[in-house]
Specification:
The protein is globular and about 50 Å long. It has a seven-stranded antiparallel sheet. The relative contact order is 0.22. About 6% of the residues have low confidence. The longest helix is centred in the N-terminal third of the chain and has 17 residues. It has two domains: 156 residues, no CATH class; 57 residues, no CATH class. With 219 residues, it is an alpha+beta fold. The two termini are 15 Å apart.
Length: 219
């Protein structure tokens, strides 16, 4: 995700009200069909070869935007929200930089996507929100997110959120502290584990992946 995206939705809903919540979660979590299995095998082979380490994702233009979440994943996004099988919108890694999984996305529309042989009801809908990073102690980054109401109240724009908007919203002390800020638009999202998962490739969590910091992401 990501902060794996469903986890993000829950955290943001609690912290900020009506933001980035799962307006429509996945409604099917059953066994993989033959076409889904073929899709998963294909992207596993491809993405594991091209992006085995977080540094490979960064070289390809993916940007880290979360701390480790409670599934053990750290999310990187390329800001391209219309995916194809070889270009997921997000890749996720463990704290050692090992590739764990990917998110595929398309801009939100009334009907869930019917792509690549994937059951449409595996996709989840998420509302627009904003992610940002703040300069922390010792060269670290403090990752955060906020919703449309907070941005609007601060006089900002969801189309072009700025460091000044975060200051006006009380989320940053100074504009110079903001290391990045971007809008995560309204999308349909499909998450796929690329490492073996006894719960299935499309499951929310993986019992074989243990978070290094169980308390999850730094908000």
């Amino acid at each position: 995700m990501r902060i794996r995206i469903a986890v993000l939705a829950t955290i943001l809903a609690l912290a900020f009200g009506a933001v980035a919540r799962a307006d429509e979660g996945a409604t099917y979590n059953g066994p993989e069909s033959a076409s889904e299995t073929a899709f998963v095998k294909s992207i596993q082979a491809d993405l594991m070869a091209r992006f085995p380490h977080a540094s490979d994702a960064e070289k390809a233009g993916y940007v880290r935007y979360t701390s480790e979440d409670d599934t053990g994943a750290i999310s990187y996004a390329n800001m391209q929200w219309t995916s194809d099988p070889t270009h997921p919108s997000q890749l996720w890694y463990d704290v050692k930089g090992k590739l764990l999984g990917a998110d595929y996305s398309v801009p939100y529309a009334a009907e869930a996507p019917n792509l690549w042989g994937i059951e449409p009801s595996r996709w989840q809908r998420f509302g627009a929100h904003v992610h940002y990073g703040l300069a922390g102690a010792g060269g670290t980054t403090v990752y955060g997110a906020t919703g449309q109401k907070a941005i609007a109240k601060a006089g900002g724009s969801m189309d072009h959120p700025t460091a000044a908007t975060l200051v006006a919203a009380g989320l940053a002390k100074n504009a110079s502290d903001v290391t990045f800020v971007f809008t995560f638009p309204a999308i349909w999202d499909l998450q796929v584990w690329l490492v073996p998962n006894p719960k299935g490739a499309f499951a929310e969590s993986n019992p074989d992946v243990k978070p290094a910091h169980p308390k999850g992401m730094n908000m």
